[in-house]
């Protein structure tokens, strides 16, 4: 056997290998987070698409009234939170795979902050929709 092949360095520590963690240290937990959020998005997205078709051609007041209902507001909020969590987890994988050196950590922080901020904006939009729906009832 070639002596250069026997000196290949292993990127993971022995403990990391025993725990099943990859170089990023997230292992199966990260994998499960992606799968669970994707599975959760299936029914939520289907519900949303059906609702959009039902509301096709509806007036603004009708849409506000629909969005002000607790079940619809809860489903919209769950869809937004799950979507941006899933996007954040997926983008983190891309950053971990393709961004190296000094830019890695700032890029990870930027991705987390951006997905959290945009998701928060979506949740506040639902809250505004609910408040608008309540104020129109009175």
Automatic annotation (TrEMBL):
InterPro entries linked to this entry: SQR/QFR_C/D, Succ_DH_anchor, SuccDH_FuR_B_TM-su
Location of the protein in the cell: Membrane
Gene3D superfamilies: Fumarate reductase/succinate dehydrogenase, transmembrane subunit
Source superkingdom: Bacteria
Transmembrane residue ranges: 36-53, 73-94, 109-131
Topology with respect to the bilayer: Multi-pass membrane protein
Reported cofactor(s): heme
Keywords attached to this entry: Electron transport, Heme, Iron, Membrane, Metal-binding, Transmembrane, Transmembrane helix, Transport, Tricarboxylic acid cycle
Pathway(s) this gene product operates in, as recorded in its UniProt entry: Carbohydrate metabolism; tricarboxylic acid cycle
CDD domains recorded: SQR_TypeC_SdhD_like (cd03495)
Subunit-structure text: Part of an enzyme complex containing four subunits: a flavoprotein, an iron-sulfur protein, plus two membrane-anchoring proteins, SdhC and SdhD.
Function (record text): Membrane-anchoring subunit of succinate dehydrogenase (SDH).
The protein's name in its UniProt record: Succinate dehydrogenase hydrophobic membrane anchor subunit
Organism of derivation: Acetobacter thailandicus
């Amino acid at each position: 056997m070639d002596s250069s092949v026997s000196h290949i360095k292993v990127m993971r520590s022995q403990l990391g290998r025993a725990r099943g963690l990859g170089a990023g240290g997230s292992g199966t937990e990260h994998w499960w987070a992606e799968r669970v959020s994707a599975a959760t998005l299936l029914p939520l997205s289907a519900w949303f698409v059906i609702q959009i078709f039902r509301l096709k051609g509806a007036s603004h007041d009708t849409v506000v009234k629909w969005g002000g209902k607790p079940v619809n507001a809860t489903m919209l909020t769950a869809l937004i939170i799950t979507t941006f969590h899933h996007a954040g987890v997926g983008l983190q994988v891309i950053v971990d795979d393709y961004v190296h050196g000094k830019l890695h950590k700032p890029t990870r922080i930027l991705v987390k902050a951006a997905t959290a901020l945009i998701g928060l904006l979506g949740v506040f939009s639902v809250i505004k929709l609910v408040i608008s729906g309540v104020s129109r009832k009175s």
